[in-house]
Structure prediction request, 757 residues.
Amino acid sequence: MLGELRVIVQRVSAANDLDTALSIIVSCVRETLHTNVCSVYLLDTDVDGYVLMASEGLNKEAIRQVSLQADEGLVGLVAKNAEPVNLKDASNHPSYYYLKETGEERFNAFLGVPIIHHRKVLGVLIVQNEEVRRFDESEEAFLVTLSAQLAGLIAHAEATGAIAGRSPSGHKVTDTRFQGVSGSSGVAIGRAMVVFPQSDLSQVPERRVEDVEKEIEFFTECLNAVQQDMRALHVKVANQLAEEERQLFDVYAKMLDDDALGNEVVERIRLGSWAQGALAYVAREHIKAFEMIDDEYLRARSIDVKDLCNRVLLYLQQKKPFIPEYSEETILVSNELTPSMVAELPTEKLKGLISVEGAGNSHVAILARTMGIPTIMGVSDLPLNQLDGKKIVIDGYDGVVISNPSSEVLKNYTDTIKEQDQFAAGLENLKYKPCETTDNHRVTLWVNTGLVSDVVASLDQGAEGVGLFRTEVPFIVNERFPSEIEQTEIYRRQLEVFAPKKVTMRTLDVGGDKDLPYFPINEANPFLGWRGIRVTLDHPEIFISQVRAMLRASHKLENLQIMLPMISSVGEVYSAMQLIKRAHSELLQENLPVKLPPVGVMIELPAAVYQTRALAKIVDFVSVGSNDLTQYLLAVDRNNPRVADIYSAFHPAVLGALHHVVKESHLEQRSVSICGEMAGDPGAAVLLIAMGFDILSMNSAALLRVKSVIRNVSLSAAKELLKRVMEMDNTQSIRKAVDLMLYNSGVDRILRSSRTN
Prediction:
């Protein structure tokens, strides 16, 4: 029946609306299983029951007219238990409920399966027969499989109807919510403007070219035009962003230089491909390389490459850019938002941003935070085609988009906008105040950086150092390993900007599913494979070159710290320390009197948790990477939507591991920091300072919110809270206890801040 399944799913996918989709389902299933009846009941919250939405075999006049309460009848039984019900004689079952309008009295055999999407029962798919018999296992398995495959399509169709303001049964609905993740906190009310790329790399066919030199000349002209556009955007945002942040558009332009993408395209044209095809091929290769990277921050760079190349393609196709008319309250919506899309829009008219794809570490999210624009990323169920021109609310605190907002919701969020303006003004006053509790316990706040734009934003927020500088960027954007001198220049800029504040540079963290385009690694299980310190120890020439570059960059600044990633054993640290000392000795012999910097380890693996004290004995500091540690402890990929809700840094096992690391590190008088997203969660920060973390390192956007909370609580109260939550056995209870403390401390507005879970 696999062929039949595929055909049904394809036909439903092509349906224009919910009614058409349901009609296809019931007719195809009835025919495939040779049953008398096939029907679909969908949950309608307006009537708090399951409405008959489509049927082949029952009375057509009953469709949309009859419903069963949530706990009523066999349909209610299937929905309540969220499992199939298979009966040979349905009328004799105690849950049977006769609906005379349907004309189903003569049907005996009954098989109903739930339609479930993201743990929510959307409805029930049923088949019925006149004869008294049980449906066999193959029939039941077919219906269960089909239901699972169709659930997402039905959910999307329902969402499309909800955007139009209608429930499945036709009732008017308001306040339909679509869940994403926060890219930039804040609230906005406005009208959606949906934008799509005007050119599509995936639609470019292969074609040969006769005049190679003429084609190269044409490509170069188009390339230069896009570079000029990027420089123009740099000038356009001059009054909105600091110079370092505007440099993003210069970086965009340089990505198209002869030494980068442009040269690769030219080489492919010389092989006989036309410019559009060559560009599409090179773009796909670069996009694929970025998308395979595990690090969210770096994986998000694929969007930048796609945006740039689509813009070049637009010129190659000799199309005129479409300039839309913006309303006074525009909320920009796209499948993949890019920085250039944002920069092109008049800032005074831009109220918010929504991207179906993408994460909080994308360039557009970084820019949005800098510009103070509420932004939602990763709203996967949002029906784009129906949203244009609709009035919507975006809640950048909770990552929620609300369509058809009621007057009550509009009033509440209008009040929130006024409140957030007042709150933001209050945070500005905290920039240069010390981060200390009400009982005078001092806490050090550092930042995680990667882009130059991060640096400026970080210093502007009062950062006291860098807890994590990702050194992978120059390796990933190159076509080869960057030279020692090239690396030195990059590292020097970072160290100079922050001097004399400490900058913690993580050694190259690639391998497994985070491989380099010129150094591919194919493994069956990359998360447990060749990555981090394992790669660099196997290639000491890469490791020593990078360490030499770091040491050179730190000369006369002396604010460098080196951190080793993905440590799983003491032996790895000994081996790394030998190589670091060797690099230091080589530079001394070359008459460069650099000092040996502090060296620390990242605790990201369960193995390292249980070796914390042994590791602390041989290094200068300890740092916890809470993102990876949480994923490894819970066996959850937080970017997988099917299991992302399991990911939580507030899980009792995670909190226990963190507490253990702090205690073991302090026994050896080593400072211990945390540089995952957890550090930027205001509520989590309270628990972390109670555990004894010396340094919290976070993205710059979270720094003032965390400082605000810490300055409003006492260390003694935080320790009392920690004592209580360490006795709790579930994430939800812990989260509620933390929220209650924030509320009682008078910082309840922080409850709406972006969270780690």
Notes: Residues 154 and 344 are 36 Å apart (CA to CA). Confidence is low (pLDDT under 50) at residues 753-757. The longest strand covers residues 120-129. The first helix runs from residue 2 to 13.
